[in-house]
Amino acid sequence: xxxxxxxxxxxxxxxxxxxxxxxxxxxxxxxxxxxxxxxxxxxxxxxxxxxxxxxxxxxxxxxxxxxxxxxxxxxxxxxxxxxxxxxxxxxxxxxxxxxxxxxxxxxxxxxxxxxxxxxxxxxxxxxxxxxxxxxxxxxxxxxxxxxxxxxxxxxxxxxxxxxxxxxxxxxxxxxxxxxxxxxxxxxxxxxxxxxxxxxxxxxxxxxxxxxxxxxxxxxxxxxxxxxxxxxxxxxxxxxxxxxxxxxxxxxxxxxxxxxxxxxxxxxxxxxxxxxxxxxxxxxxxxxxxxxxxxxxxxxxxxxxxxxxxxxxxxxxxxxxxxxxxxxxxxxxxxxxxxxxxxxxxxxxxxxxxxxxxxxxxxxxxxxxxxxxxxxxxxxxxxxxxxxxxxxxxxxxxxxxxxxxxxxxxxxxxxxxxxxxxxxxxxxxxxxxxxxxxxxxxxxxxxxxxxxxxxxxxxxxxxxxxxxxxxxxxxxxxxxxxxxxxxxxxxx
Length: 491
What we know:
The chain has helices at 16-25, 28-40, 44-55, 59-62, 65-81, 85-98, 104-115, 119-132, 137-140, 143-152, 157-169, 180-192, 196-205, 209-216, 222-226, 234-251, 256-268, 272-279, 294-313, 317-328, 338-350, 354-360, 369-386, 389-400, 410-416, 420-432, 437-444, 454-467, 470-479. With 491 residues, the chain is mostly helical. Helix 8 runs parallel beside helix 11 (157-169) and helix 23 (369-386) packs antiparallel against helix 24. The longest helix is centred in the middle third of the chain and has 20 residues, at 294-313. The chain is globular and about 80 Å long. The two termini are 30 Å apart.
């Protein structure tokens, strides 16, 4: 979140005697800058001491409303850090009362609620802030907040849809990129709610390949896609999209979101050599270069994961495994990056290295329910090779007990065991649910030839056999289409 005052650099790090002298000579706004600097550095004790000294300074009462409001805002952040959310929100209201035309106090309620584990309240506060003033939405609400709320509310459409609609209406972007996968999710909810006009407006804006593919294979969007001024397929959209992303990277070569977006599009286009070229400047990066920035660490881990996938597709398997192991080192707090840890474990299991795969997932840090399902799929594949039927059954049951798209790996767990009838039933179940239909339709498409690890290739053969069953074909036809696409997705 942007602050109202630029920090007085270095002041908050002065020794106590020099700091006291600096404080006595500083204006209230400069004293506040010292407090903000200390808070940003995580030195909350010093920040509270600086704020207390400012509160005792008679100049503060004679300062303008914005300075006094900023003091309340600093106090609010420090109060939130002490986990007193309601008191922190009350302090923001005081700041708002002093400066009713500023967006900052209204905007800040959303991350406060999110930090307190109240995502629905955070989404509501964000919507209220944008309804009051929809200008500069991208600058005011950072992607890390939006990503957190979208994940936390993935099963709460009543809270998620207004959030996405507010972001769509104010043309929010994710670090300069139009997050059309978000608008695709918005379109799903609009279609299920029968909001025809809103759905047409959402679909009309979508021009990126994968969102177009998802809309084109789902019958819920047939009318809205037909109403587009200019028909556009995923394949037709891909060259212009790649060109746009190349331009973004040329303009911002060190901004990781731009680079990873380009790498993903190049993989989709089957340009694996292009992925290696575009990712080469980052191949030797180290976690130390992104210390104390968990978000940047996770972005680097994903960038290297994309590079590893391109190497794997090119047959450079040793290099791919080495790159993915390197990507694991970019986890927050000194832990392994859990997404890359799981991906490598599945690679090893599918390459008939079950013991190594199981050893890799013995310790998993900060794992989501979907991640737990992937870990259980690794166990299914690994224990199947080791002949441990009881362990296979336990892992399969664990995946089956999860909900929504967190249960997606269940299909591959069934295929790994050769349970084709159960796999067909699972496909039909997923197609009939509006919550899982999109992912299942995506998985049912026929894409370009992508090299696979040995056991993954065996599962793919079984999947194609199951998809050709009459009952499965009928279930697909009832809700969507299945076709051939000159695309090479990786998600």
